[in-house]
Amino acid sequence: MPKKESVNKNFILRIDSEMMEAIEKWAADEFRSINGQILYILDQALRKAGRLKKE
Predict the structure, then answer these.
(1) What does the alpha-carbon distance between residue 4 and residue 38 come to, in Å, rounded to a whole number?
(2) Which residues contact 41 (CB under 8 A, 6 or more apart)?
(3) Are 47 and 54 in contact, with CB atoms under 8 Å apart?
(4) For position 6, what pLDDT does the model report?
(5) Confidence (pLDDT) at 2
(6) What is the DSSP letter of 52?
(7) CA angle, residues 6, 25, 27, in degrees to nearest 5
(8) Half-sphere exposure of 10 toward its Cβ, with a 13 Å CA cutoff?
(9) pLDDT tens, 1-46?
(10) Burial level of 38, CB count in 10 A (0-12/13-18/19+)?
(11) Cα–Cα separations (whole angstroms), residue 52 to 5, 25, 48
């Protein structure tokens, strides 16, 4: 069975300024973009909840 091709989807995310500042700082601390940091956080949460397959 061929591997499913990954396609990125765009969407708008409303987030309060306090949370955004925390994500910006965390991203800078780990040398990631804000987008990359949000994807990392979501990936980790999905894996922890068993909603995403582990690689």
Answers:
(1) 23
(2) 23
(3) yes
(4) 81
(5) 63
(6) S
(7) 20
(8) 0
(9) 566 778 999 999 999 999 999 999 999 999 999 999 999 999 999 9
(10) middle
(11) 16, 26, 8
What contacts 32, CB < 8 A, 6 or more positions away? Answer: 40
Q: What local confidence, expressed as pLDDT, does residue 55 receive?
A: 65
CA atoms within 13 A on the CB side of 31: 0
**Mean pLDDT along residues 42-52:** 93
Which distant-in-sequence residues (6+ apart) come within 8 Å of 36 by Cβ?
27
**Amino acid (one-letter) located at 51:** R
